[in-house]
Amino acid sequence: MEDEVDRLVAAWRRERPDLDVGPLEVLSRVSRLARHLDRARRTAFAEHGLEPWEFDVLTALRRAGSPYQLSPGQLLTQTLVTSGTMTNRIDRLTGKGLVKRLPDPDDRRGVLVRLTDDGRDRADQALAGLLAHERALLAELSPDQQHDLAALLRQLVAPFDSAG
């Protein structure tokens, strides 16, 4: 079974036999897979009327557990965006009725962002849809292969996650 990366690597080996193009065999596939995954995720979110950034914020709140609320600073940490971007996102989600701002009882100047019932339902439905799409992407791999791949990818990603 040959894929586009095999053809790309063969062409580079022909044109530049002096270079070790072996890393392309792994990382070009990871890059291509990331693009396919991004498309599948966008489709899954759109089916529930959400943009990827909306899903990120809503699911950060959902994962927090009842009462499904976090400070804007905690949301910044989990979604890796700037303060101004997060303020804009909270404003837009509030306008859609998916979150609400509440005064922080521990900080007179602070606020908490809480998921509304509609926001929780949309997050739950979008997550279920996403998982269905992702299961389809992994359907060619056995559970053991999926486990092994997850372990190998964790090993590659861990240095980046610990550096940030």
In angstroms, what separates the terminal alpha carbons? 38 Å
Query: What is the fourth-level CATH superfamily of the largest domain?
Result: Winged helix-like DNA-binding domain superfamily/Winged helix DNA-binding domain
Average pLDDT reading: 93
Apparent shape: elongated
Q: What strand line-up does the widest sheet have?
A: 1-3-2
CA radius of gyration: 20 Å
Using the coordinates shown, work out and report the CATH topology of the largest domain: Arc Repressor Mutant, subunit A
Helices, by number, come to 7
Q: Any guess at the CATH architecture of the largest domain? A: Orthogonal Bundle
Percentage of residues in strands? 5-15%
Output the CATH class name of the largest domain.
Mainly Alpha
Describe the structure concisely for a colleague.
This protein has helices at residues 4-15, 22-46, 52-63, 72-79, 83-95, 117-137, 143-163; strands at residues 69-70, 99-104, 107-115. The protein is mainly alpha-helical and 164 residues long.
